[in-house]
Design a protein that fits this description.
Blueprint (H helix, E strand, L loop, with lengths): L3 E3 L2 E4 L4 E6 L5 H4 E7 L6 E7 L5 E2 L7 E6 L4 E6 L8 E8 L3 E3 L3 E6 L1
Parallel strand pairs: 2-11
Antiparallel strand pairs: 1-3, 3-8, 4-5, 4-9, 5-6, 7-8, 9-10, 9-11
C-alpha cells in the first residue's frame, strides 16, 4: 500500500486548501486514518484523526477550521482547511495503520500573511 498526497500549495492568510490522500485496497476502512504536519524545526504533530468506531479527533489549533473526511469507496481521504493562518505553514502528511504504519510523502502548505 502506498499513500499519495496532493493539494498543497501557497495561499494567503484566510484562504482555503483541500488536501487529498489516495490509498488502495480499502486501507482506510480497516482502522481509519489521520493527518499530521511538520513545520521547520518542529516535531511532527497530529492534526486530525478518523478512527473506525470512535469520535473524530481534532487538535485544538485546527478545531472549527479543518475538516477530515473519508470516501472508502474511492480509497480517498481529505483534509479541508479553511481560515488558514501563517502558523499553518508546514509539510502535511497522511497516515494510516494496519499491522504497520503507512505514510504519504507529504505536501507543502505555505500560508502567507
Amino acid at each position: 500500500v502506498q499513500l499519495q498526497v496532493s493539494g498543497g500549495g501557497l495561499v494567503q492568510a484566510g484562504g482555503s486548501l483541500r488536501l487529498s490522500c489516495v490509498g488502495s485496497g480499502g486501507i482506510f476502512g480497516i482502522n481509519g486514518m489521520d493527518w499530521y504536519r511538520q513545520a521547520p524545526g518542529k516535531q511532527r504533530e497530529l492534526i486530525a484523526r478518523i478512527s473506525i468506531g470512535r469520535p473524530t479527533y481534532y487538535a485544538d489549533f485546527v478545531k472549527g477550521r479543518f475538516t477530515i473526511s473519508l470516501d472508502n469507496a474511492k480509497d480517498m481521504a481529505y483534509l479541508q482547511m479553511n481560515s488558514l493562518e501563517p502558523e499553518d505553514t508546514a509539510v502535511y502528511f497522511c497516515h494510516t495503520w494496519a499491522r504497520r504504519d503507512y505514510w504519504g510523502q507529504g505536501t507543502q502548505v505555505t500560508v502567507s500573511s
